[in-house]
Amino acid sequence: MARLPSVDGPFDGRHFDREIIVLCVRWYLRFKLSFRDLVEMMAERGLSMAHTTIMRWVHHYVPEFERCWNQFARPVGPSWRADETYVKIRGKWVYLYRAVDRDGKTVDFRLSARRDVTAAKAFFCKAIKVQGALPRTITLDGYAASHRAVRDMQAGGQLPAETKLRSSKYVNNLIEQDHRGVKLRIGPMLGFKQFETAAITIAGIELLRRIHKGQFDLRRLRLKGRSAPAIWNAVLRA
């Protein structure tokens, strides 16, 4: 396997080369592969590792990968479709708040133990902070707590009064369909054990989906025609 150019910092002192770490983490987050699937795939390349090693890489490197890629994030549109879906952690259901814009680009996500007004407010505040911009339109389903959260934020000045709030199951089909991509990847993982590591793993899944959707502007890196490993290496070096 070809060696990537040097990347300083996060990979120093690791037993395995950085390109192996990045490859395993991004394949795990993007495709329906288990840790043991990746162990077997690496074994065919002459590399012996434990499945827990790859698990630790995912938990350790996803925040760093997010930080690097977010330098190149494109802004999303001002019309947001927000909804919640369910994720199981240690046998109990928790709530994954998510939003996309009218073109299906991911706005943000937030994992929450509760589904209430406070959780919805926390999600919208996080999304606004990440995007650095306020939505002009927010489309929700009929769940009352989310509508109240938006109205409370308008009353408190966190959202402008002119932000249009609407309820439309038809329009919100876009976010409900987008949940599928995340849920299809989570399904083969057979449930999470801890809330914190679940949030990190889901952040990685969302990052890979944003990359797949073309939500990053890499033109200044001049990577046209380059392979995925070369692109990742350039982003992590930036």
Instruction: Report the strand count.
Output: 5
Q: How much is the average pLDDT? A: 92
Largest sheet: 5 strands, mixed
Distance between the termini: 23 Å
Gyration radius, in Å = 19 Å
- Gross morphology is globular
Structural summary, described in words:
The chain is 47% helix and 15% strand. With 238 residues, the chain is of the alpha/beta class. A 5-stranded mixed β-sheet has the order 3-2-1-4-5, sandwiched between helices. β1 (79-89) and β2 form a beta hairpin. Residues 1-7 have low confidence and may be disordered.
Short description:
The protein is of the alpha/beta class.
How is the secondary structure organized here?
Elements: H1 18-30, H2 35-43, H3 51-70, E1 79-89, E2 92-101, E3 106-112, H4 117-131, E4 137-140, H5 144-155, E5 164-167, H6 173-186, H7 195-212, H8 228-237
Note the main attributes of this structure.
globular; alpha/beta; single chain; five-stranded mixed sheet; 238 residues; 47% helix
